[in-house]
Structure formats: structure tokens, C-alpha cells
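The instructor's notes for this session suggest beginning with a concrete chain rather than abstract definitions. Hand out the sequence below and ask the class to guess, before any prediction is shown, which regions might be ordered.
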Amino acid sequence: MHKGWRSFLAIAALTIVMASTAVQAEPTDTAVKAAFLPRFARYVTWPAVAMPKGGDPFLLCIIGANPFGGQLDDAARSQLIDGRRIVVRRLDSAAAAGGCQIAFVGGARTASILAALGGKPVLTVTDSDSNGQRGIIHFVVEGGRVRFFIDQVAASQRGLTISSRLLALAVGVSQ
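After discussion, reveal the predicted structure:
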């Protein structure tokens, strides 16, 4: 093989390795959403009846489709809410959601799951894959960045108070 070709191939291989490393360094939209979810709890106040009792953990539930794999567990592991650890539960239905403070709802049954959680003091979170249905917090990707909308009316109907600090970070707030 000609010396010039070897140099070209070496440079091409190095470029491919560097490009793939750069892509891996950027967090995915799913990883960003997983990082946000447990942090939302710091900026929401639940009614006393909805808070864990005794030493029980704070429950962050995934109901329906789970896009996170283990990313949400990793993100929640380092978070404490009022001195309580956060436990992630994966559920098949809203009927099993008793005790959940936050519920990420996704998949084909989003509308029926949101309806079943409607009157409960649960912070519902959805994303753009939720078939047009929206929870109290709804993730979107705008300009390559993960952002979110907040439905403050729905939150207050469920007895939840969202901090002005979180409301200020939202792309839009329904009031």
C-alpha cells in the first residue's frame, strides 16, 4: 500500500474515533429527562396526606412505557427529598400507583393513565412521545435542548404547589 494511503487511513480512523467520542460525551435527551425527574421534587410541595409516612422513601414511579432503562435509578440514587431517599418503581397501571409522589407516564395508554391519576396529589410528567397528552410537567425538545412546560392549574387542582424557581425555568406555564 502506498505511504500516502496509509497516512490517509490512519487520519480517517482517528477522525472516526474522535467523532464517536464527542457524540458519546453529549448526554441524550433521555438522560437529561432522567436527571430532571428526581430534581423536580425539590421544587414541589405536596399536601401532608400525600407525603411518605415515617421512614418511607419518596416514590418516583414510571407508569407505562419506560424510556429510561437504569438512567433514572442512577439519577435518583444521589437525591434526597426532605432527608428521604428516592425509590424508582416501574408500574403497569395507575391502579398500582398508590403512594407515588411523582409519576412519569408514557406510551400508548398515556391518556387513560393520566385520567386515572387525575384527582390524586401526584406530579404527573410526560414527554413528546405521550401521544399528545400532557401531564402537569411536559418535556419537549426545542433547539436540541430538553425543556418543559408546566400546567400550574392542574397542579393546584391536585393540591400541589410549584415553586416560582421551577416555574421560571419552564418554557411555558398554564395559569
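Then share the key points. The radius of gyration is 20 Å. Confidence is low (pLDDT under 50) at residues 3-22.
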